[in-house]
Amino acid sequence: MAELIETITADDPDELGIDLIVVHGVKTCSLQPLNDGWYDPMFKRTPPNTRLLEYDVDLDLSENFMWKDIQDRSTGLVQAICIEYKDIKALVRFELQDNLKNYLKAISGIAFFATPHITTCRDDTSQQLASILRYQSASLSEGLFIENDLTSLAWSSLKFAELKLHCPILSCYEQTPIKIGHDILGRPWSALADEPLARTAVFDGKLVAIDTELGSLLEASDCLVHCGFEEFLAGILSSAKEKREGCVIPLPVRDNTQTEVGDGTTTTTEQEASSDLSFNQLASFSRRSATVINSPSPLSPQNPCVVRTASQPNSESSSSFVVISQQDSSFASITSAEFRAITPFKSEASKVPDTVHYLPLAHQQPNPDFVGRRVVLEQMERCLLSTKSNCEDSGLRSCVLSGAAGIGKTQLALQFLHRQQSHFDVVLWVSAQSIDSLSVAFSEIAIKLGLETKENAKDPVASREIVKGWLAEPFQDFQMHQGARLSWILFFDGADEPDIVHDFWPYDGQGSVVVTSRDPMARSNIYFGETGIKLDTLDEEDAVALFQRLLESGTSPESYQVLLEVAKKLDYYPLAIVHMASVMRRLGYTPARFLQVYQSEYQQRGLHAFKVGTRQGCELTLAALWALKDMSAGAARLLSVISLLDSGSISEAILTTAPERTKLEDYPSLNFEHKLSELTSSSIVFRKAQSIIHAQNEITIHSLTQDVVRSQLLGSESQTVAVFNATIGLLTAVWPYVTRPQFGYHADNRIARWDQCEKILPHIKRLREMYGILSESVRPCCATLDYLDILSEVAWYHFERFNPEECMDYVQATLTTHSDSKEYHPRIVAGQYGTWAQIALRTNQCELGLEKMQEHLKIRESIFAETGVVDSHIAAAYSETARAMLMNGMSSEARTLIHRSIDLRKQMTKFSRLQLHSPLMYLSWIDCYEGSHQDAVDKLLEALQDREVEFGRDDQEGMRAGELLYYLGQVRNSQGFLKDSFQYHQRALSQFRATSGEDDFYTGLACYQVAGHTMRESDLSVTETLLEQAIKIFSRVKYNEPQLARAMFQQSKLLLCQGDDVGARSLLERSAVLRRQYVDFDLRLAEELEERDFEDVIVFWLR
């Protein structure tokens, strides 16, 4: 068995020093084994009192070397370390393939010399690495052998980054190629571990150039790499000195052994481990202090984790990194029931199903009338299907189908799917017509794949990134990154604006992607790569075949010629042929009769090809209009409404829930089914039932047909106004409103309604686009109260989801549309100022929030003075203005307004004590602000009792109970009742997770607070989980940076407790940088900051 050889002993084992473990022994033609005395020049660069140990990998590149050979040597290296430092128990656990995590935490730094890493998918990087392996091959047929080895190295590079060592990483790259042998023709073969290859995936990694020959690297010459290495070692020793001179930090050692602490009690710990020590590296181990607080004796100086010190200080730190001892008598242990609130944040599901199909209802079956396109289908197969030379893990395969509207892009993609469906485990089809439709689809896909539960999929951005992450590593067991790799194909249908697909594109994906787009630029490498196919019209044979299949006609030469003549008149355009065939069937025309009528129409108009306009360069042919000819009035009305909605998926509930709201004379109500069948039989729209049991049908329509109908609709202003307002009326019947006035308690159903809102949003966005192109004379007729109401609702929806930009976009759109309206609607204007104020307050713009909230209150008061009606709007206006005042330090004024709000609520016709939730909570904030903490507790308990009477202790009616529990935890913590505070914070976290989801902002707040308790209890494992979750949540939105800075500061304290000085300092600096963005002038160093400094940049009610 290989062992560590002590080459140089330490001058004084009892003093501070460094153990330097040198891993070497990869020999090439030009780099021979190290000679005796090689270490003498190097030790001129090391700090005093350094001990040198070496480990010989003993590998020769001429003996069929593979990178995996170096990785295999890591086993011997770890075993040698275990034996050297007498940790036989760790050695036994290592042989059982457990993790040696404590050894990883003991590493104070790692230096790589000309050691390659793979952190990029660039071809030149792979080729450079392949050249290192290929020189000794007898032929170039060993490409697969090399590719597998490169994959192994890439995996090791990734796993190295995932270790999160938080120690200095120095990687030295070559500038001069080194000869490593000769090829089969005798030519010299050289390789270069240049800067891209030497770059690690570690956040704080540093790169230094090797500005000398690799063979003379250890000679005593003053070159850049030596200076960099000397500075690297000096930094490690300096960090150890700072720790020795500061406080003794508790380092959790988990080895299932009992350790006696200062008061005579015992603690039980459990060993953790990791075996991922590999690579041709120079690893330095700092022997650092690792004693428990109040422990009378240090760990053995022979342990590589221990810094040799003359004495062990036992005093509290003067810095802000203070860890409270376990001797806090007010802190209680966690019960098993309470512990459920702080379990790891993982999805309930753990595996992706064997097969997953996410398809629109209309696409779940192949089109029986599809013909032709054989050459294109074969081209798609070569591009998208795996072959021996194009294996599953070779990267992303994409194909772009572009062409004019109605040319058959979607049908071709659908045909390819159903022909090749057996090649894919996962099939995903999304409408790419808008960002909203893409966001909804990716959220549903995350749930469909089992990556998120429905309860937790509340953040569209997070769901999008989770899906993209799985597409990059499509393991069936996605949590453990193991198991079968599932093959997948993703369709972006209707990406006519390619830019909006950018954020959803799986750049690192390991599968196939198909894009359909009208934009010819989509085929270029500006967007989706160079693999693209431009679709033209059908050839003669396929066009006639399509006619025959649609008309179920014979194949006689006479009929063939007539159909060919008709196809020529239609320019062999697929969608035109489909529509004309529908007209011929409905009117009972034979091909010859139709041709005669069509000829007459042609002669009257004197046109060669019937055009009715263009859209983005795509011609709108008369053929599409022919399908509208002789249509009944009811079907035409229904079609006109459908043409204004998003074409991808239209729920029939929108069209049928409240037909009376359309106020259209011919709109179908009782005879809806009959009129819809008229449209489906003409292939104008397509219908598909979701299921036999629950028949919630959906309708789709081709965008070209919508364009034609709209072009006719816009020709008449009266029709435009009537149909636009009718469509708005239908949407108002299905939108789940929350901003309309209430006269009693309004249930908190914001989470439950989000799914319904998301499905309606694409239609509202389409109507906004429609409104934007209306003439100035038409807009006032469309700026109705219903339209303003629904725009206002969308603004509030985005506030609930905390999408500040989208929220303000709809606030401004509502106010702009209101300026077009014929009437003044004070309720709408007041509502927008209120929403604006809420966004300002939520994003720490306190003065702006107060300004807008006062404008909101002023309008509400004028409405109340005029009508005398007491409703939720006027009551909430007083309490929310009070909150804005309090955030600006006006506590006395705020208290007066809240009491006014309470009085008004009690006057409502359907008053319930549940309506006092917000006023009592805001009064408790004022009490805290003024120092009356017990009064604050009393008010919060009063509000909580009201809810428990109605909903029980396990209240999951929205997140209101969670808010009360959270603030109770805050106040009790301020009073010093840590046990009570911990219990309230745990209950708040449990309630937020159950109602808002694991990724909600308030869940992040609760995670942070509970982490403070568990850290005080020295349960650092749970603390780490909670802080990681909080940081993940706060990292998603820029406006959460104050909370993010505070959580990162707390995590830096955790790392210090775990003995990771370097990682703690790095995280502290990053948190300080974030904080500086929110303070006017503060020249203090990061280490001078305390937790209250981070609290000060957070609005007090979110602390």
TrEMBL record:
<feature type="domain" description="DUF7779">
    <location>
        <begin position="626"/>
        <end position="713"/>
    </location>
</feature>
<dbReference type="InterPro" id="IPR056681">
    <property type="entry name" value="DUF7779"/>
</dbReference>
<dbReference type="GO" id="GO:0043531">
    <property type="term" value="F:ADP binding"/>
</dbReference>
<dbReference type="InterPro" id="IPR027417">
    <property type="entry name" value="P-loop_NTPase"/>
</dbReference>
<dbReference type="InterPro" id="IPR011990">
    <property type="entry name" value="TPR-like_helical_dom_sf"/>
</dbReference>
<protein>
    <recommendedName>
        <fullName>NB-ARC domain-containing protein</fullName>
    </recommendedName>
</protein>
<dbReference type="Pfam" id="PF25000">
    <property type="entry name" value="DUF7779"/>
</dbReference>
<feature type="domain" description="NB-ARC">
    <location>
        <begin position="398"/>
        <end position="549"/>
    </location>
</feature>
<dbReference type="InterPro" id="IPR002182">
    <property type="entry name" value="NB-ARC"/>
</dbReference>
<dbReference type="Pfam" id="PF00931">
    <property type="entry name" value="NB-ARC"/>
</dbReference>
